[in-house]
Design brief:
Helices cover about 35% and strands about 30% of the residues. It has helices at about 15-35, 60-65, 70-75, and strands at about 5-10, 40-45, 50-55, 80-85. A four-stranded antiparallel beta sheet has the order 2-3-1-4. The radius of gyration is 13 Å and the shape is globular. The mean pLDDT is about 95.
């Protein structure tokens, strides 16, 4: 199954909203991890965004999944970049 690197970009304008909705966002992430869709995720230390690695049948399926992220529903993500990724070595290589 393809792996996708998802880059979220945040701004200072959404800090309060992200603080409010972070428990729901992390709950959603935990659900995706349990379902096998999410491989790993975490914020960038500078607060500018986050990196999430997902497995999905295709980009369309992934985009449908990302649309229900509480951060997306609350319009707290300034930009989303999705790139299919092909790991060759390491933990995610097949």
């Amino acid at each position: 199954m393809p792996i996708f690197a998802v880059h979220y970009t945040y701004s200072e304008a959404t800090v309060a909203g992200r603080d409010t909705h972070r428990p729901a966002h992390r709950g959603w992430l935990a659900d995706q991890l349990a379902a096998g869709a999410l491989l790993t995720s975490g914020p960038y230390p500078d607060g500018s965004g986050a990196l999430l690695l997902f497995q999905a049948a295709d980009a369309e399926a992934l985009n449908a999944l990302l649309a229900v992220d509480p951060f997306a529903r609350e319009q707290l993500i300034d930009d989303v970049r999705v790139v299919e990724w092909l790991p060759v070595l390491g933990a995610f290589a097949s």
